[in-house]
Amino acid sequence: MVWLMILLVLMLMVGPVMWLRPGPRQRRIVPLRNAANKAGVKVALEKPPLHDTNTAMPAYRWYFPAEAPGPRFVLVRDSEASEVLKFYQGDWRWRIEPLRLLPAEARETLASLLSRLPQDALVVESSEAALTLWWWESQGAERFLTYEADFRRLRDALAGHADRPQPSRFLSQEPGETPKPDEE
Q1: What phi, psi does 171 have (nearest 5°)?
Q2: pLDDT, tens digit, for every residue of 55-111?
Q3: Ranges of each domain in the chain
Q4: H/E/C letters for each residue in the chain?
Q5: Torsions phi, psi of 88, nearest 5?
Q6: Counting beta carbons within 10 angstroms of the beta carbon of residue 151, is it exposed (0 to 12), middle (13 to 18) or buried (19 or more)?
Q7: Mean pLDDT, to the nearest integer, of 127-141?
Q8: Most buried residue among 17, 89, 162, 177 by CB atoms closer than 10 A?
């Protein structure tokens, strides 16, 4: 009887410790997020730009340089999009379409990337600050790194193509004054 009590007490002490062990999903996500961080991708849990979604979702961000902001657009996977949204390609629809035509290199890279993304990748968003992938992290670090290079290429192709023009250095000149060429 004493041994049974000792065993029960030990199980009560060890039980909570076993709950602290990471589960299979956590063991897969930690190397994925570490690989993303090493590649310069910022990962955050935030509310995605989807209707009727209040839960936080992983957002993987590739930031544009401050001097070369990106265009604003949001692409949503068909499974999360309304039929009234404009079709883009495959099973993706524009929620917010860019105001200007994207550069050819960016269009090609985006099309290739969208055709390869996993089904749990629900939103690809671009803002002046960053290019963001919203997904449920279904794949491992090795597979993610195959997308990462294409996202970096897409970010570089979109950089400097913001919807709003950058303030001109000529805004401070007097009316009627002609701009002076750069001196070298």
Answers
A1: -65, -25
A2: 999 999 999 999 999 999 999 999 888 889 999 999 999 999 999 999 999 999 999
A3: 24-162
A4: CHHHHHHHHHHHHHHHHHHCCCCHHHHHHHHHHHHHHHCCCEEEEECCCCCCCCCCEEEEEEECCCCCCCCCEEEEEHHHCCCCCEEEECCEEEEECCCCCCCHHHHHHHHHHHHHCCCCEEEEEECCCEEEEEECCCCCHHHHHHHHHHHHHHHHHHCCCCCCCCCCHHHHCCCCCCCCCCCC
A5: -110, -70
A6: buried
A7: 93
A8: 162
Residues 22 and 31: beta-carbon distance below 8 Å: no
| Token pair recorded at residue 107 | 């269009």
Q: Tell me the torsion sign for CA atoms 73, 76, 81, 87.
A: positive
Phi, psi of 34 (to 5 degrees): -65, -45
State pLDDT tens for residues 7-50. Answer: 888 777 777 766 767 677 677 788 889 999 999 999 999 999 98
Q: How far apart are CA 96 and CA 99, in angstroms?
A: 9
